[in-house]
Each structure stands twice: as structure tokens, then as C-alpha cells.
Amino acid sequence: MSTQNKGLEIPTPWRIKRYYFYAIITIISLVLPWITVDGNHFFLLSFDKLKLHLAFIQFDMQELYLMPFLLMIMFLGIFGMTVMGGRVFCGWVCPQTVFRVIYRDLIETKILGLRKRIKNKQQEPDMSKTENKVKKVIAILLWTVLALVAAADFLWYFVPPEDFIAYIANPMEHTTLLTFLFGVAVFLIYDVIFLKENFCVYVCPYSRIQSVLYDDHTVMALYNPHRGGDIYNEDHTKQFTKQKELQAFEPSAECTTCESCVTVCPTHIDIRKGLQLECINCLECVDACTTVMGKLGKESLVTWSSDYEIIDQKGKTRYFRPKIVAYIVLLVGISIILGMMGSTKEHMLLNINKENRLYSVQKMPDGTVKVDNAYEFLLQNTQNEKLEYFFEVIPPKGMEGKIIISKPNAPFMAVPGIKKKKIVVLSTNAMLVDDERKDTVIPITIKAYALGHEDKIVVLRHSTFTFPRADIIKAAK
After folding, report:
1. Contacts of 317 (CB under 8 A, 6+ apart)
2. Which CATH number fits domain 348-476: 3.20.20.140, 3.30.190.20, 2.60.40.10, 3.40.190.10?
């Protein structure tokens, strides 16, 4: 038996590999919001409590300067992924594609049998039959349940699950949350059941961006016209519909014109036409051609490769080229900056504002003159438990112990997440500066800390202490 008839061993279809990958990312997205470390989530942008949780570290909304770095990492990652692998994000990661596969391949085809075969995505179910109408209603109901779960999962990254469940138990008090929940669910129902892949083709802006990012070495699903023959002319007009027509003009053409690569395409394109914006790199056409050509003992005519290797035939695809290396360097650099900024997080927030009155001067019973400076401290406990706080003054060298805190005179309690205002008075009985001409501004450092956690929950803030002119001191005596 010739090699032509032996058939080749067909590898595991890309479609099956995608299903496994979809299952993994779905499980991660559903489970991750429930995982906490010391009460902190992996990622949570809580507008309710004005908190940002990142990598199980809690940040206050005043520390949202980290968000631009997260957005840069996300966009650079997607752009770099596109430069290397085309719209691989669309076919392998995008929730739109995952949801469509769940609805079309799992619910409509496998569970209900509304569609006859997964490999035929062009033929819509015959809705004139009563049986199919019933199945369609069941499919919509099943997806509605899943859409509500997906909407809830999305909201869990903004409202933690433990709060979400409590809020849903009192719906009339949390109508905004319910509006978002049902709004997202309704969008997913319309998008997945009625809009379908038209979202990818007409709505999603990513398909327009990709053409700018592609280069000759970008990997994508490509038909090999050198082996298969030119099915379309330069004007993208179809020339041949049958194998005998094709081989009459190109005797060596291997394409069987079975159009398996066409019927399996979720975005309804013909990969043999060349690069098209609608292609989402799901590689279903690669699987289809691999199966058909494999039975003939030949390699697939549609492969995951680059123009440089398949169309231009100039050599092997270069994966790690300067453009890709630049993306990697940028991503690593931004990640390092984000890590460094995140690691310097302060475990409490403290703002110090000096009162408009520079100082007050008072003669004491022992004959000394007391100078007071008043401040407004705005402190926030960013931990998950009540803590006691207090302050210390660190004056310049040579003035140690001469400036003290006269108010408050005892530690105070601060509950998590609530800003606490304290009037703080710093005092001195010493003649810090003997200057007849002007008041003296003395730089000081305020140390704020939580009792029992002095080694961790502590911040330092720079401020000033204003000491009056010598003649004011003498006049007060």
C-alpha cells in the first residue's frame, strides 16, 4: 500500500486542547475570588469599601497609582501575544469565545442535539420543527443560568463573594448591585445567543488593531497555496468549487475542495482566501484539514505558521525577534516597578495638616514659657482588625526630648477602613532658638505606629515646628 493511502497519525486536535484550556481558566476565574490570605484577595477593586487588593495585599484607594501599571501589563501582554501569535487571545482566552463554545458546542450540540455536529458551524438548526423550538428554549434557559453565574463571577472582582452573598440576601437595600448583575447577564444572553460571532467581526475593536501589530513572522492559521493551489484570485474571487476544476488548471494542487475548513469555522470565513480580520486563531480549520489530509497520507494544507514560512517560503519562523524581545523587556520592567511599588505599601495612612495659627505662647506656673503647635492628623487603619495607635516626635539632632506630644496623652483606638481625625498638639518649654529677628521653622518627623505592631505598622511623616522670635518669648515671661 502506498504512503498516499496509509494515512498519517492524526495528533490531538487543537479544539480538544482549547477545551482543556477553557476548563482551566474557567475554574481559575471562578475559584480565585474565594481565595483569601489574611482577609485579602488576589485581585479586588472594591468601590464599596474603597480598597484595592492585589496579590493578597490590601491597598487604599489613595494608592490607585498601581492601576495604570496593571493596565499597561494587560495591554502590552495582549499586544505582544498578538505580534507573536495573531489573534490567539481571541481564540484561546477571550470570554466571548469561551461562552460561545459552551453554548454552541456543549449545550446546543452535545447536551441537546440541536446541532448535528460540532464540525459544522455553518448550518443553523431547523427552527421550523417543534422539537427544535423546545430545545432552543431549553438552551436559552440553561445559558441564562450560566450567564447569571458568569455575571456574578465578574462582579466578585469588585464586590467580594462574602459581601456579595450578604447583599443579595437583602436585595431591596442593594438595587445597584442587582442592576449590574442582571444587566451583565442580559448582555451575555444577547451576545452569546443572538449576536454570536458578529461581536468578534463587527463590534470588537481588537480585529482592527491586529493588522497594525502583525509582521511577516506572526504565527496564525494559514492555508498553503503552493501545495493546495490558489482557490481565490488576486481579487479574492473564488475560482474553483470542485477538485477536478482546480486540478484542470493546477494539476499538482492537493486541496480536495471538501471545504471542511470552511464549515467548521465559527466566524464563517474561508481560510483559503488568505489573512482575514475575522479569523480568531481558534485553529479549528487546522484540525479539519489535518483530519482530511491525514487520511490521504499527507500533511495538512492549513497550519499554524507565518507568512514568512508558508506564503513567502523564505525560511523558518523567527519567534524571538527584536519586537518580541522589546515586549518581554517592557513587561518584565513594568512588573518589577509594580512589585517594587507594591512592596513599599504602608500599613496605615496618615496625613498631617498644620493649623493656620503658627503657634501659641503661654507662661507656666514655674515661670517657663510653653510654646504649642497644633496639627490635624487624619489617620486610617488599613488592617482588618481594630488597633491602638499613638505618635512620637523625632526632632533634629540636639533637640531630643525637648519637643513632646501634649495632646493626645494616651493611645487611641481606630477601626478598619474608617478615617479618624485627631487634633495633635506638640509642645516645648525649652528655648529652642534665640533669634530676635524672625520665627524659626524647625523640621521634625512624626512617627505613628500601632501598639503591639511597632515593627510593621509604622509610618514616618515629615512636618515642621514653628518656634517664635526671642522677643515674643521674653514678652510672655
Report:
1. 217, 219, 305, 306, 308, 309
2. 2.60.40.10
